């Protein structure tokens, strides 16, 4: 009797296991990884440290939000030259305060540190100058930014500032952030050039014609006087000849 009960229980247990296969061994599927968040320049700089002033200016000028939109809505990428806090400390006293109250020049200063395309460290040797920045016109006297290399050294000149790239802060194929030793000061803001003088007006044909006419009028009295003197001399010579012939005939 006991053996029959054991056999029945074993059979029931076996049936339960075979009718619900995998019930005991099946595990929950792994959760899918959360999508990556938008690339945030200020958070990258905060994590790197020593960029407090640059971060503050990025936020106060609105350039940080502009970069956030570009990075997450464009495939062109962005390159940033980030001055460290010591770079701002080395500026002449009152440099930032001298910028206009409307913040336009502050915006241009920060945008001047941004190139609207991704530039890897290996591309610096073949880059075309001058580089166009977010600040605008790269012509001489405006916002020119030139980069040259010497070995592993990357030199940057703005016409006002000469500095070097001192480190690679961040790079992911879309955003590149490099540390620079000085704040990049653009010519347009810190060394504006006077506007080129307007070209002298050209002489019009009518004016030139009038001058030529006046010149011809001025010459005509002299010519008439010369002709009059020549006619008088001829008459005097003819009269002298006639008188001489008459005297010679009278004496003969």
Any chance you could write out the topology, listing elements then pairs?
Elements: H1 2-19, H2 41-48, H3 52-60, H4 63-73, E1 78-83, H5 85-89, H6 104-111, E2 114-115, E3 146-150, E4 153-157, E5 162-171, E6 175-180, H7 187-190, H8 205-251
Parallel strand pairs: 1-6
Antiparallel strand pairs: 1-2, 3-4, 4-5, 5-6
Summarize the structure.
This protein has about 250 residues and is of the alpha+beta class. The protein is built from eight helices and six strands.
Structural commentary:
The protein is an alpha+beta fold. The chain has helices spanning 2-19, 41-48, 52-60, 63-73, 85-89, 104-111, 187-190, 205-251; strands at residues 78-83, 114-115, 146-150, 153-157, 162-171, 175-180. Strand 4 and strand 5 (162-171) form a beta hairpin. The relative contact order is 0.10. Residues 20-35 have low confidence and may be disordered. Residues 38-184 form the FAS1 domain.
